[in-house]
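Re-run with default settings, no changes from the original entry. Doing this only to confirm the output is reproducible before filing.
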Amino acid sequence: MFTGLIEEIGMVVGMEVTREAGILTVAAGFPADLIAIGDSIAVNGACLTVVRKGAGTFSFDVSPETIARTSFNNLKKGTPVNLERALAVSGRLDGHLVSGHVDCLAVIRERRAVSGNTFLSFRMPGEYLKYVAAKGSIAIEGISLTVNTVDEEGFTVNIIPHTLQKTTLEGKKVGDVVNIETDILAKYVERLLSRRDTGNSPGISLELLAKSGFM
């Protein structure tokens, strides 16, 4: 699990795609002795496993599912990427719970400055938009953000200067594609409701939500 708080911006050293799978190598400032083979790192919001370490670089196997569902097809040498190591059990959850499993892609449909901040509007598939709520949480390129508004085609967010400078959002423009992970809690609530509708669950109650960890 992750928090959506980006630790640093890495740089793609190479992205080799063979058939439908690939190997991604990223240059990063993480101390090599703190990263072990098998550790999880979120790269632009996608949870990947470290399979090799080099001098200031880390390599990951990228599955066909990840390539098909994310913007990794657009990665090339020199592309900046958001990086976050997996959340330690003793760590602080300052963002929101992020699984590192990208749901879909969204397209930036508008970008403008507002009172020193940056307003971004995104268009995303309707089948995932149902999990997005105004003032709820969403992960964009692995960044934990609060949704401002939602409409029939997408949603908007407001980016403070610190977040813009410390993530890859600073270089994003209208038409760019980004990785989206919706709030995991919304998916579990939908699952519980669907089981009730099919008669496989006693229904939703405050007691059930509390037992399931939603309260």
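The longest strand covers residues 8-18. The chain has a mean pLDDT of 90.
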